[in-house]
Amino acid sequence: MSEENFDVVDEMDMVVGQRPRSEVHRFGLRHRAVHILVFNDRGEVFLQQRSLSKDSCPGVWDSSSSGHLDAGERYGDAAVRELNEELGLISSEPLEYLFKLPASPETGMEFCQVYRGRAEGPFVLQPSEVRGGGWFFRWQIDSWLQRSPEDFASGFRSVWANFLRWETHGRSETI
Predict the structure, then answer these.
(1) Is 14 within a domain?
(2) Is the pTM higher than 0.90?
(3) Which residues pair with 96 in a beta bridge?
(4) Under 8 Å CB-to-CB from 12, ≥6 apart: which residues?
(5) Alpha-helical segments (H) within 1-73
(6) Which domain holds residue 126?
(7) Is 151 left (phi over 0), alpha (psi -120 to 50) or beta?
(8) In the chain, how many domains are there?
(9) In-domain check, residue 170
């Protein structure tokens, strides 16, 4: 199986080339990813526990769905693809774009566009990607993060903190 290629981007998120996934991660090159927070009608958010076979952050909790953009792929297309690949979800309504995080060590040098979706489940979890998952109220996630931040992927910690700020202090496109 061939290794996937990612777009390598500059500090303005402009494509400057393509490199294999392993090189992008090994050299800490800027690249692109999406995170999707899926909420149900009760206001709970679905979090996934990453598969133990993942090469980064195995077994920790993460956004409902997340993943890298393939070379040449658009953020919105990647968000739809990742929901389907990881959760088996084909949303009947469009995802809502929330904000974009700059590439930083906290995001694994990924520019991250964050989206919100709505669904009730149940989901068909892809075992190679997702170990399990569950629905949580915001206060439960906040309390858990305070007690045990190491239970969560660093990218999710950044996404969640910025999501709460986005909800509370205004909804600008870039945080």
Answers:
(1) no
(2) yes
(3) 116
(4) none
(5) 21-26
(6) 30-165
(7) alpha
(8) 1
(9) no
Contact 25, 106 (CB under 8 A): no
Residue 3 in domain: no
Position 156 in a domain: yes
Q: What is the pLDDT along the chain (175 residues), one digit of tens a residue?
A: 568 999 999 999 999 999 999 999 999 999 999 999 999 999 999 999 998 777 677 789 999 999 999 999 999 999 999 999 999 998 778 999 999 999 999 899 999 999 999 999 899 999 988 999 999 999 999 999 999 999 999 999 999 999 999 988 766 554 4
CATH of the domain at 149: 3.90.79.10
**Any bridge partners for residue 8, and if so which?**
17
Residues whose CB falls within 8 Å of the CB of residue 163, separated by 6 or more in sequence, listed in order: 37, 98, 99, 114
Q: How far apart are CA 170 and CA 16, in angstroms?
A: 32
- Spatial contact of 103 and 111, defined as CB atoms under 8 Å apart: yes
Whose tokens are 């929330």? That residue is: 98
Per 3-state DSSP, what percentage of the chain is helix, strand, and coil (rounded to 5)? 30, 30, 40
Calpha distance 138→47 (Å, rounded): 11
